[in-house]
Amino acid sequence: MSPGLLVVALLSVLVGAGAAAAADATWKTHQDQACGIELKYPAAYALEPSGARDFCSLWLRIGVREARGLRMLFSMEVREMQSAEREAVARPGAPPSARDFALHVATIQCAADGPDGSTYCSNGEVRSTFKTAQGFRGFEIHLTEVNETLSPKKVVVKRRRGPILALDLSDDEVVRVLMADSAPARLDELKAILDTFRVWTKARRQTPRVVEMSPFRNAPQALALRVAAGEQYRASRPNPVTSWLLIDPRGRRLGRDFATGAWLAEAPAVTHSTGIESGFMLRETLEGRYELQVTASVPGVPYLVAVQAPALGGSPAMARLAGRTAEPGTIDRYEVVYSPASTPAVTIAEVPDFSRFHILLSSRGELTSEWILTDPQGRQAGLDPAAKVEPRGLGRRSMALDVRQPTDGAYTLQVTGTAPGSYSLGFRAWNRSGTATRPELRDVSIEPGEVHLYRVEFASTAAIPLRLGGRFDGGGQKSDEATRLLGYASPTTVETRLRPGVARFPLIIFYGARIRPVTFNALLNGDNISGRFTPDPEGYQIVPVPLAPGLNTLVLTVEGTTATGQATAITDRLVFRVESPSR
What is the pTM of this model? Predict the structure, then answer.
């Protein structure tokens, strides 16, 4: 018997008709962290999962436990469309859809070859569509199953196969479906299980492997830095008496972690060291602000810091600081600013005050936005010298803001679009003891006149001195910041009006520290889009929300606890109105 015939035989002996079911309090719950999904199933059944641990690839078997193992009644599989499948799935003139991909998966799952025959499916069609209780679009697929036996003579048997159910779990990055199958007599019970299916966070994707080719290409045009101690340590110390740590404009670290002693190599570079000198040459030279930290293994070590980087014309620019002394247990901090179009192209300055925060606004091309920072006393950056704020430009692509000895409390950062495009925000903050935090948002879309409002909470004595949030509370919860479960930097009001033709809105959402991620749910015009979100406590993300012409309603719900531990739940209803084109 061929493998395909074996599958048919097994399905034919499944237990008889399954009565229409409805989930109740006795049903069991299964969650998968990699796929971010949850479902319930009758208490009388057992569930066996299999798949990857670190990315979404899941197969579930649900059935009755017997002496010989699990007698399968229902099977479910989460499938993500791979790049190699796109050409086979896509129809002429249209991108591949979840419906097309589900038909493709149902067809290939049917295929099986054996020594005396084969099984395959044809004439696949979606006979009906449906929507689950949680708002997921579903497809009911039917096929023609063909069994060919070649020995002792060729025999072809055709039969109907289905229905096979599929749910659309696609997000803004990939096409993804849940395929579900059962004996036809248990279709109502399968649908009841699918009605409990939820997505509570974005599915993890497999990380592609990257192979770096020619890493030393254009090495003479790299940024290089060295830390050199006095000659008296050359003979007595085989290893450098100074240690350093660099943080590049992207927040990547290179050098020694002073707290753990571990060597960090997040930024690609070539490093070198001798008894009195150590340093590096970066393989990727980035424009912007670098942070350098230096300490010593023995008391009273005199040292100098020198940095070299290419200027706009290609000639090297240099900066150095001498006459410094490093001590064990203390950290000297420096700021290296590299802007090839500026004069000088590279600067280095000591940062004597640990209590501060720094904001970098940047764009890939010309700056597309401008900002206003308002402190807890209502003073604004650039308008009141008493605010201790020093804005400065780093060329046409970026702008930096330094707030030294900042007042504790909530700041409001308003970013206003001046041209179509996107911007990135990088934050660096230090408490009084020098502990740093580095929240960041990258490639935030913005239009001229559009306003994004961020809440920047600074506490100079906290272990995490700066916390980033959204100024708008969504309208469905209390304004108390301590109990806020969701916040938004964009939109800034319950209803947002958009120009004709806008197809997506970049929702900038912040999740509170006390949310219960598994309770998160998102419905857009009644369709479940929870798979686009990653509701991590104290996390944030930019979610492209697809819009249709006219009125669009996004309903977000989540449960959590208050600062006193009491249970709470909120529902935010956000409206996006895409205007009709004027005639």
Answer: 0.61
